[in-house]
Amino acid sequence: MDVIVCVKHVPETAEAELKIDASGKAVEKTGLVYDINEWDDYALEEAVRIREKQGGSVTAITIGPDDSDSTLRKCLARGADKAIRLADPKFEGSDGYAIAKILHSVVKTIHYDLILTGMQAGDDGSAMVGPILAQLLGIPHATMVKKLELGLGTAKANRELEGGLEEQVEVKLPALFSIQTGINEPRYVSIMGIRKAMQKEIKIMSLADTGLSENDVGLAGSWLRIEKLYVPPVEKQAEFLKGTPDEMATKIAEILKAKGLI
Amino acid sequence: MVGIFVLAEHRQGQIRDITYEMLTKARELAEKANVNVTAVLLGNNVKDHAKNLAEYASTVIIVEDAKLENFNSEAYRKVLSGLATTYKPSLVMIGHTSQGVDLAPRLAAALNLPLATDCIDLAFENDVFTVTKQMYGGKVNVKATVRKAETYLATIRQATFTPKKSATPINGQIVTVPSPLAEEISEKRFIQYVLPPPGGVDITAAEKLVGIGRGIKDVANIPQVEDLAKIIGGVLSCSRPIVDKGWLPSDRQVGTSGKTVKPKLYLALGISGAFQHILGMKSSDLIIAVNKDPKAPIFSFADYGIVEDMFKIVPPLKNKVNELRAHKT
Lengths: 262, 329
Description:
The structure holds two protein chains of two kinds. Chain A is an alpha/beta fold. Chain A has a single domain, classed as 3-Layer(aba) Sandwich (Rossmann fold). Helices cover 29% and strands 27% of the residues of chain A. Chain A has a nine-stranded mixed β-sheet, sandwiched between helices. Chain A has a two-stranded antiparallel sheet with strand order 2-3. The termini of chain A are far apart. Chain B is of the alpha/beta class. Chain B folds into two domains: 3-176, Rossmann fold, CATH 3.40.50; 203-326, TPP-binding domain (Rossmann fold), CATH 3.40.50. Helices cover 28% and strands 28% of the residues of chain B. In chain B, strand 14, helix 5 (222-232) and strand 15 (235-238) form a beta-alpha-beta unit. Chains A and B meet through helix 3, helix 4, strand 7, strand 8 and strand 9 of A and helix 4, strand 7, strand 9, strand 10 and strand 13 of B. Strand 12 of chain A pairs antiparallel with strand 10 (140-146) of chain B, so a sheet runs across the interface.
């Protein structure tokens, strides 16, 4: 099985306090720690497990400037065989549609049996790149995949639905699957793996190598244009308890007592 | 009839709430633009639902086919492509749900029409289609404009709009359109629904829940919070990342892909409050949240908030609750 996995280098923001930058169209990036997008991390692990079981290769692809290399290095250290980074100032401002077109331009030149992407990215959360890429390639897809079983020429995928329910679908290969978190347990990288990954080559490609025009990518090639970022208006705010940790804990306990909850 | 299309979402014989939420928002947009709202219902033996939809939409288009019995993104894409091309609606609204996520991006690419996903608001401003979305797990809102097109596609976040019937009865017209699906969809087939294995704990029955999120940091920290839950007389629950990491079983998960709970007390520890989690617990009677980030969305839904590392609060809270319980006579 030749597997392509599409990954994104994103800031970790779950526990960070975000500020909007001077342009008003992006968040202040200084001080943020970047890593592989959480959903892509599971997709990468799934790709590597398939290769370990069935042979073949894993190619990791990303779009982004130099610092995205650290995410590709992580992919290589975790078991990817090849890494490709598409970088061009013209790509800036690309939405999910433009990103899918850029990925398509490269993916169509590589042999694959399977393409895995994260179901969405932790930054823009658009959840659209995978299915659009599948449409451009003319291959079937399934999104929000929580279990993947490969057969001969087909794959069975369990998709996550609402309320704890799943559905199983059968898809003909080659196909694209967008992976939901929790499908596997991503492995830790060994020191050996990191050392070996440092020696592997990352292939860099620019707009000129893609066969696309300037109008296909960036803002010109996108469906959406960001006009303004703002902090969500607060309709209701909690009453904040103040003091030392001890004092705050005491206040919680007293509230619970007053409400008859303890 | 040209106006706004809303894809009616249903599963296992039930119209999903998102359908009425979208129809209500669509009616608001349509009244401003002086156009009509059309509900589009694809399925097999679904005519009974059409009457309910007709209370919200001036037209209901039904396409029935055995191949539409269960949701299949490819079958839906083919049928909707045909309808969108024939009727040329100005907007097609689809839920940002497990169905919409599977269908909408591919439909948009196939039709070469622009799509905005996971919208929490949408408007036509001076003839420009404008949407509001969220980034970074709900910490930032984005206003974006969409490239000019004859038809726009948008997926709508669940539980964003409150369903409301029109003040004046609508009693929409029901139109049956023949299915264009000639043969079986062979590239993608629905096989079956898979129910999660029954768990040992029913968090929906618990009166008090102590919920943990990413702030728990390590599986080794779970016992001390479980201990707190026991002291309070409650049950431990969690947000999605804890289940993804395999630290707690999925029957403990609160949120859209887990359980919806309504306890007397929800104590959220180290949970930032992604909307998927919020939807599962916002109806709790009393919500107390502890989080390091003062801007965490959970604080907009909590009654009381504490901006602090949860591990500085848990030990003294245990002591204090024990103390107060000891005094109970």
